[in-house]
Amino acid sequence: MFFEKFRDSGRVFFAESGVYMAEKITMTQQEFEKLQEELEAQKSRRKGIAEEIAIARGHGDLSENAEYDAALNEQAELEENISKLEERVHNAHIITEEELSEGKVNVGHVVKVKDLSTEEELLFEIVGQDPDPFADIPKITLNSSIGRNLNGKEEGEVAEIMLPDNRVLHYQIVEIRQK
Question: At what angle do helices 66-90 and 46-57 cross, to 10 degrees?
Fold first, then answer.
């Protein structure tokens, strides 16, 4: 049976069945712990916002109470953030030491590549979440076009990366090391 897949904010939609399934998010143990800490920090803000709502409610007419509206909006944003973080925790796949030591590009590795068209060498850190292209060593996720095409490759192999403007980069993997 053929299922057409569509990506939507970390989920895959199977058109024939009409079902959304969350994709696993590969991450290191350190990234997972950071995610859990962030989730707990967000949850701890709930009580404070509830108190702000109660105080604002005490200021009278709720139909013209900007402080009350602002507190409700803050609460809604907080709950949305908590929901997203809980989904990421639930869908986390923590990479094992064995997976890291296989000699293949994966989350938790720093990868040196050579652009075969310019001979320039580049470094990338492969992360499960929170990319940062401006870090000293740019952090890219496995879901990025570069990360997706480097994933699972070994030293010496060449990855072809299709850019949005239909150009193709050819990156040869020079070195793979753990962060």
Answer: 160
Q: CA 44, CA 73: separation in Å to the nearest integer?
A: 17
Q: CA angle 12-149-83, nearest 5°?
A: 35
The Cα–Cα gap between 25 and 42 comes to 20
Q: What is the maximum alpha-carbon separation in the chain?
A: 70
How would you class 150 by CB atoms within 10 Å of its CB: exposed for 0-12, middle for 13-18, buried for 19 or more? Answer: buried
Q: Are strands 139-141 and 121-127 parallel, antiparallel or unpaired?
A: parallel
Q: What is the mean pLDDT of residues 67-72?
A: 87
This prediction has a pTM of 0.64
Q: Is the dihedral of CA 53, 56, 60, 63 positive or negative?
A: negative
Cα gap 122→170, rounded to integer Å: 12
Please give the Cα distance from 68 to 72 (Å, whole number): 6
Q: Tell me the average pLDDT across 55-62.
A: 77
> Over the range 111-133, which residues count as b (16 or more CB within 10 Å of their CB) and which as e?
bbbbeeeeeeeeebbbbbbebee
